């Protein structure tokens, strides 16, 4: 069962077909859901130009409590819920944005809406560098913040998965109906987030995918968060829209620079030209920028022997192939393999693709 104050909003959204954003705009114009419900004919007359025929018919038919109860029961059976902006559970920081949603559908731990959170977004096609940066930052920061993202391919999915893997919490903001996880290959991720975190959407049951909804949902990703971290973004990445929303909403913006030769990092580098103070190279800089204590511990000092120190120093400057390390150290294949394996297990170096190594 939903509270009385949500009936009118659920009717407008799920029956009449007004998207949450539209309901909020009518409210700002002096027609909140309850007023529309009781002054339907006056409302239809006043806003006839922006109401289509199907919506007008549903409005004039009026609110059917039985129909709303059935929708509420459907949500309950799917282990989902619905909150409106007037509800206590609705986060104050989301109410304060310029274009707030009037309602949110949810699945999972609703209390996370009010948790200390950080948005992590980026390209759908990350490089290995972007993937590693995202994993490293989220691993360090998920102990302090609920990680918010859009469950898209690439950086979004990496951020959600790393937050869960690190024992943290995460919120996925959908650009489709609350029961329509997108993309389809993220169905398992959707269920894992719903089980251990929270999935939210301003779009109700059976709302299909429309391209315009994804940029719209980005205002909610930033709105829920204290800050937005962009780890890697191309020239036309949707994460750049989230970054601009963060600036408009007065949120902290953090941007990790990319190599100028990396086309998938063009967007992040352009952001840094526009917002140079957003440059971020460590997770601690994010925590400190949000007014929190550093989130990483300094590594314990490690005593390296001659060959270990030589390899470590060489890899600081560039990645090297196994054959190059053979020439550098003068060791045999077996001895070098054993040494590199030991250094990798200690976290000093890492093995890369095609038999290359890096720090």
How is this structure best described in words?
41% of the residues are buried. Helix 8 (128-141) runs parallel beside helix 9 and helix 8 crosses helix 14. The mean pLDDT is 92. The longest helix is centred in the middle third of the chain and has 14 residues, at 128-141. The protein is elongated and about 85 Å long. It starts with a helix and ends with a strand. The protein contains 17 helices and eleven strands. With 359 residues, it is an alpha/beta fold. It has helices spanning 4-16, 20-28, 33-38, 40-46, 53-61, 65-77, 92-95, 128-141, 155-165, 187-196, 213-223, 239-248, 266-274, 283-289, 306-317, 322-329, 333-345, and strands at residues 81-84, 103-108, 117-121, 146-149, 170-173, 198-201, 227-230, 252-255, 320-321, 350-351, 356-358. Strands 1-2-6-5-4-3-7-8 form an eight-stranded mixed beta sheet, with helices on both faces.
Largest sheet: 8 strands, mixed
Pick out the low-confidence regions. Answer: none
Number of strands: 11
State Rg.
25 Å
Order of helices and strands: HHHHHHEHEEHEHEHEHEHEHHHEHHEE
Helix tally? Answer: 17
* Separation of the first and last Cα atoms: 55 Å
The level of helicity is 40-55%
Shape: elongated
The structure class reads: alpha/beta
Residue share in β-strands: 5-15%
Mean pLDDT: 92
> Order of strands across the biggest sheet?
1-2-6-5-4-3-7-8
Features:
elongated; 359 residues; 17 helices
Concise summary:
With 359 residues, this protein is α/β, with parallel strands linked by helices. The chain is elongated and about 85 Å long. The strands form 2 sheets. The chain has an 8-stranded mixed beta sheet, sandwiched between helices. A 3-stranded antiparallel beta sheet has the order 9-11-10.
